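Re: folding output
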Amino acid sequence: MAMTGEGNLERFAWTPLAVSADRGALISRGAVRWAPRLEVDANLNLDRFSLDALTDAVQGRLSGDAKVRFAMREEDEGWQLAVPQLDIEGTLQQRPLSLQAQLSGNSDMRWQIQQLRLRQGDNRLTAQGHIADSMDLSGELNAPALGSILPELGGSAQGRFTVSGTFEAPQLDLALSGNNLRYAENRLDRLSLNAETDGLEDPRFDVALDAYGIEVGAQRIEQVDLDLDGRLSQHRLELAVDAAETMPMSTASLALSGG
């Protein structure tokens, strides 16, 4: 590691900060100011940088560029974050990896996502849109090979979401499914989730969750069905659970109404 820079009692600029590892390099240039308020402006360049230098959990090499700007606003007005460039290519777990993103946001949870595209092998994640006084945000997940991300993972997952409406009355539409899901010794044969929500004050819910073949430790549950419908002020929840015959309780059901 090597770094050169200059500064005073109000700011410091590094030109550059360089980290070399296994024939690759990470080089950063930027500046930080802490008076009259905190501001950070940084550029990052990766040149076949080895992830082994950061963690033993994953393997890969990355190249590309990123720019990040962070600033505290006037007193008690929160912060702002901008990522005008994030363009990374390389490999992760011996699979091709690419990440492109442009986004900005602040502490009021107003976000603009011009693009977010992540690809690792056959797995894809995309999102774009904005969250502000009006909302229009959507994304998709297509991950047929979760095991290529981390050794502890397994199975496949697909999903989509949309966020619309206004900040005072948001609407969410979510669909998620998975097959042969695994994390370490925990397993889930099949998952299906469909959910819609509307509003914040007395919100409306329409949720259907089905899960099959759940194994956690020595416990196995054959099936879980959950349905939630209505508003917070008047709704109905139904839950049915079928466990393995070796479990102390093999069947349970529950129905609740609120209002």
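--- second protein (sequence, then structure) ---
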Amino acid sequence: MDYRKLYRYTDFVKKWIENTENGRIYANFHQIGAETGRFSCSDPNVQQVPRMSRLRQLFRASDGYVFADCDWAGVELRIMAQLSKDPKMREVFTREKDLHIITAAALSNKPEEAITKDSSERQLAKAVNFGLIYGMGPDRFRLYAKTSFDVNLSKAEAEKAKKVFFNLYREIKTYHRTIAEWPSETYCLPEGERQMVAVRCASGRVRLFKPGVDYFTNAVNPPRSGNRCRYAEGSTNAPAPGDRL
């Protein structure tokens, strides 16, 4: 796992260097580049820079300028709370509390006030919250926690975290099960009639999947990511006052 992590970091740096001109990286941004409808970036990918501080320190603003880092607070988790209608998760957001601290307290069996913003417990909770809404299995979740949040977990620890998460946010498990059991239908595709499962996001965007073992982890993503894309594009392309959508 450590080798895969270091290889991934090395690959990032190589691609940055290959696409550098006059000390600047010129990447390509695609408004609906991903199959889920999300933004994507390529040649090189600077949208998903690893959280490793030594890598992020490679980026510098020009003299007299600063980088501005803007983000929606837990947008994917908020969308999952709405999709799953999980009462606990919705309550946390309605009361404007920190979901990662709530999860961290449950994982560590500590009171919420004992969890700080920069604590290792909260960092673990971020990996758990963002990883398990995707329906990741233990092995994939462990790799995700390591590469994305620098959190090391044994298989037993990953299994325990998963159990705590779904006990705390029970309706997310129900939502996952609903997608996993979604019935297939017959679709007329260019290659002929096929049995496919159709998954839709709130805006009506559809993705078709072949029923099978790998169906669930792919199908659980479009409703959440598609909705996020819809909100992102709506905000960045917001009409001026008086215009109509």
